[in-house]
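Dear colleagues,

For the upcoming journal club I promised to circulate an example of a predicted protein-ligand complex. I picked one with FVH because it came up in last month's discussion. The inputs are reproduced below in full, followed by the predicted structure.
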Amino acid sequence: MHSDTTVSVLGLGAMGHALARAFLDAGHPTTVWNRTPGRAAGLDGARVAGSAAEAVAASPLVVVCLVDPDAADAVLASTGTAPAGRTVVDLTNTSPGRARDRAHDLSARGASAVDGGIMATPPMIGGPYAMLLLSGDREAFERSRDVLSALGETRFVGDDPGSAALYDLALLSGMYGMFGGALHAFGLARSSGLRAAELAPMLEDWLRAMLTGLKDTAAEVDDGATGPATSPLAMQAAGFVNLRTAATELGMRNDLLAGIGGLIDEAVAAGHGDEDIAAVAGLLRSTSR
Ligand code: FVH
């Protein structure tokens, strides 16, 4: 167990900068590195490393936060033997498969690997609503937990290094679905001369009401329906025609709703017209794995 609370942050984009700021505010000696120099402005007290390898060597705990896994691959590849003996927490957004590849590579180089997803925007870091999803080397996570808690709530979601990325992307999928629907709704409003802000409070109430049924939908996706559908897909498909017609009438693109609308039609055509929306989930798998 190390009690050293020194930490290094690789990447000082909007998020990496916020992470470094939170570590410094919590009193952790912090070393930072960024590909483009000059991005440590405002990080008073941070030590600026001259290379990624130097930053990794400076601390037992290394937090990586770069734009994508290709950037993280390139930066970590440049660090040579420096990761040996370090705990590397990669908070770069990635896929489950690439998170496993990262953990495999780091382990082979003698590091303890934890992968993570940040469920927060940069201004939320260090505040009460920031959440980090983490998975991989459990002991390394436990050793680092106190330091990482400077960033927000830490939730360990499994020993599989790909788990955090899976949860992260699942939550982001829900978020993008919500934004897609909301942006289409705002488009309908604005195409009709309303301000989006006029619709927003009513939309928020409606989405909250719909969320009360989310767990029931999940149970139905897992286990199948336990009773007759309250909103059968055949009815929904007929109603969806009006969404398409309205978009045409108002001169709007329908892209944001096209995916779910097409799948509802497909589910009805496949004989699921008397089932609820959960039946659409059965169509989503594109391979037989
Ligand atoms: N910002 C947000 O709202 C979200 C919240 C949830 C988590 N995401 C993920 O966090 C990762 C970093 O996001 P970010 O907001 O810091 O992104 P940028 O401000 O665009 O900064 C990108 C950093 O990546 C560096 N970088 C890019 N390419 C390379 C490369 N080939 N080699 C080395 N570094 C690279 C870039 O450096 P520079 O351009 O300043 O030299 C920045 O440090 C991300 O996974 C989000 O999905 C954020």
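Two points we might discuss: The first helix runs from residue 14 to 25. The CA atoms of residues 77 and 100 lie 16 Å apart.

See you all on Thursday,
B. R.
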